[in-house]
Amino acid sequence: MSEFATSTTPADVVRRQYLASAGGDLDALRATLAPDVEWTEMAGFPLAGTYRTPEGVTLNVMEQLGKEWDGWAAHDDTYVVDGENVVVLARYTATNKATGKPIDVRVAHHFVVRGGLIVRFEQFVDTALVRDAMTN
């Protein structure tokens, strides 16, 4: 097993979460989340709300995105780390299954990592661009 796979540094834990998500590996994604994780999707986003537990996050966020979008991906590119805080600048790309409209939108994600696990997540995104892709 590689050092990266077992690293508890906040940036490595967050990066493993993105890789698991991109690979559709929900078990690996859940393994990055604390049992009492608080995962907040921004107000105005189709899945807006705060979800708790690793199972709650994957069921209510990742699995729902898979039902409504083809090729949903979060492309992480810039990490800003301050202790347990990791802010990631990224981009969502996908095509809405109902409308066939694509998105390519910038996002920022704020993670708090403690003890090698993500304990808090907050999403910041231009929700209007996402909603526009969902309407005819």
* Sequence of secondary-structure elements: HHHEEHEEEEH
Strand order of the largest sheet: 2-1-6-5-4-3
Supply the helix-strand structural class: alpha+beta
Q: How much β-strand is present in the residues?
A: 35-45%
Low-pLDDT ranges: none
Instruction: Please tally the β strands and state the result.
Output: 6
Number of helices: 5
Name the helicity range. 25-40%
Quote the average pLDDT.
Answer: 95
Indicate the radius of gyration in whole angstroms.
14 Å
Could you give a short account of the major beta sheet? Answer: 6 strands, mixed
Characterization of this structure:
- The chain is α+β, with helices and mostly antiparallel strands.
- The chain has helices spanning 3-6, 10-22, 26-30, 54-68, 127-133, and strands at 33-41, 49-52, 69-82, 85-96, 102-114, 117-125.
- Strands 2-1-6-5-4-3 form a six-stranded mixed beta sheet.
- The protein is globular, with a radius of gyration of 14 Å.
Structural descriptors:
single chain; 136 residues; 6-stranded mixed beta sheet; 32% helix; globular
Quick rundown:
It contains 5 helices and 6 strands, in the order αααββαββββα. It has helices at residues 3-6, 10-22, 26-30, 54-68, 127-133; strands spanning 33-41, 49-52, 69-82, 85-96, 102-114, 117-125.
Which helices and strands, and how do they pair?
Blueprint: H1 3-6, H2 10-22, H3 26-30, E1 33-41, E2 49-52, H4 54-68, E3 69-82, E4 85-96, E5 102-114, E6 117-125, H5 127-133
Parallel strand pairs: 1-6
Antiparallel strand pairs: 1-2, 3-4, 4-5, 5-6
